[in-house]
Amino acid sequence: MVAKIFIDGEAGTTGLQIRDRLANRRDLELLSIAPDKRKDQNERKRLLNAADVAILCLPDDAAKQSVALIENDHTRVIDASSAHRVAEGWAYGFAEMDKHQSANIAASKRVANPGCWPQGAIATLRPLIEAGLLPAGFPVTVHGISGYTGGGRSMIADYEAAGEDANEFMPYGLTFKHKHLPELQAYARLTHAPLFTPAVGNFAQGMITAVPLQLWTLDKVPTGADLHAAIADHFAAISGGFVEVAPYVEAERMPELNPELYNNTNRMRLHVFASDAKAQAVLVAVYDNLGKGASGAAVQNLNLMLGVAADTSLAA
User: Fold this and answer.
1) 275 and 128 co-located in one domain
2) Claim to verify: residue 257 and residue 174 sit in the same structural domain
3) Name one GO biological process term (predicted).
4) Considering the domain boundaries, does residue 85 fall inside one?
């Protein structure tokens, strides 16, 4: 059976990438809205209700409106906005978050695609908290850098217009109200919001997140090997995922710590670096903000919901 897919907001960065990934699928029929009817609520309503799965690539308020326009009990939704990421009744679309999450996504009618920033931090912190190596109340700091495509159409236009004169490293979120904080806290299982300091770089896509840990503050101090084993064991228990854990090595620098390394893939690679003598560590995740961080994750979730192989039309 061919599934009907409607990408509401297909002209945006995320929507275009999802459409590109699905374009050659014979198991799907892509429903498309005419350019002159993109703001026609009746036409959007018709397509939303005609779809087996609607993928929402819209601002938060528009995404909520689209969900409200669905009047049947068969249209399933993947929302790529931040409107429903911690909402009751919505499955969080990070399939590798734990060993049950892909099944939760597959069974759900409402899936909230994760934000790009939280996934790296969740992937490294949640296994440590579940293993009891870090307390849920640990004061967490998250740093990182992402390509400018993460800022949407206006930021893309600004960076491309500035060219070589664009800001090479622009910290933001300095009011401590970043929209990804609620999901990061909830799904990393933290009792307090982390101190989150993201930055934009002068490159189109790709990202790195880094979580430094002052382990000496703990009553029982885990070693670097303990941290690595807990994270590795967590993802070893998840079959068919796109998250891998790098070997635990000591290194001053590594060419693999390149935010653009996994561009145009759905791959995420995690690293643990530590000094047992200083009781300090840093947890690093490398992935594509438009791949695993957005469009790739949406396609992975769609595949799970349709019951096809999770890697269908995804590069790993």
Assistant:
1) yes
2) yes
3) L-arginine biosynthetic process
4) yes
- Is the same domain home to 138 and 166? yes
Would the pLDDT of 218 be above 80? yes
Residue with token string 């790529």: 80
Domain harbouring 256, CATH code:
3.30.360.10
Q: Which residue's structure tokens are 């990070």?
A: 94
- Residues 247 and 184: their CA atoms lie apart, in Å, by 25
Instruction: Show the DSSP H helices in the chain as ranges.
Output: 13-22, 41-50, 60-69, 101-107, 116-130, 152-162, 181-188, 224-236, 296-306
- pTM recorded for the entire structure: 0.95
pLDDT one-digit tens code per residue, 222-281: 999 999 999 999 999 999 999 999 999 999 999 999 999 999 999 999 999 999 999 999
- Active-site position among 69, 116, 243, 304: 116
Beta bridge pairs of residue 145: 199, 208
Q: Cα 52 from chain centroid? A: 23
- 162 and 246 fall within a common domain: yes
Q: Is 116 a catalytic residue?
A: yes
Question: Quick one: 135 and 91 in the same domain?
Answer: no
Residues sharing a CB contact under 8 Å with residue 210, sequence separation 6 or more, in sequence order:
142, 143, 144, 282, 283, 284
| Model confidence band, residue 155 (pLDDT cutoffs 50, 70, 90) | confident
